Amino acid sequence: MYTVLVIACHPDDMEIACAGTLLKCKERGDRVVICHLSSGNLGHVIIPPDELTVIRGNEAKAAGKLAGIEVICAGFNDLDIYDNNKEIHDYINETAHLLGKKLKDVLELLNISQIVIQGRVCRFKEEYLNCIREEMNKRQDKGGSDYLLTVAI
Length: 153
Description:
With about 150 residues, the protein is an alpha/beta fold. It has helices spanning about 15-25, 50-65, 90-110, 120-125, 125-140; strands at about 5-10, 30-40, 70-75, 115-120, 150. The protein has a 5-stranded parallel beta sheet, sandwiched between helices. Strand 1, helix 1 and strand 2 (about 30-40) form a beta-alpha-beta unit. Helix 3 runs parallel beside helix 5. The mean pLDDT is about 75.
């Protein structure tokens, strides 16, 4: 049995993009954990962000429950980690540091064997991937199992 960590920008991104693969992992007996980096709170023109955060979080957890997949959220709001937002460009480096720290916290909680990362997460900052690689290599050096890092476009 493996633990597969899936890192996605918003709730429903990876569930739509690779649900079949994740279900095959579950059928194989793997533990699958999806980590949404942001809440998806700006994804609707009528529903206010605070309400949408709750709605999308509950939908993600309900979908995960149906599939036997654990769902967690890193807790960022939309656009907090958006790479082309010039208004918060100065904030990006601080956010990258916070995101890297949160991902390390997630990796410490889980015994990860495979990581699937949404492509647009990787395009934002190479620092995210480096953080994950560094943490996984430390675990491997301490006798941890090999791991597979996959980027899903």
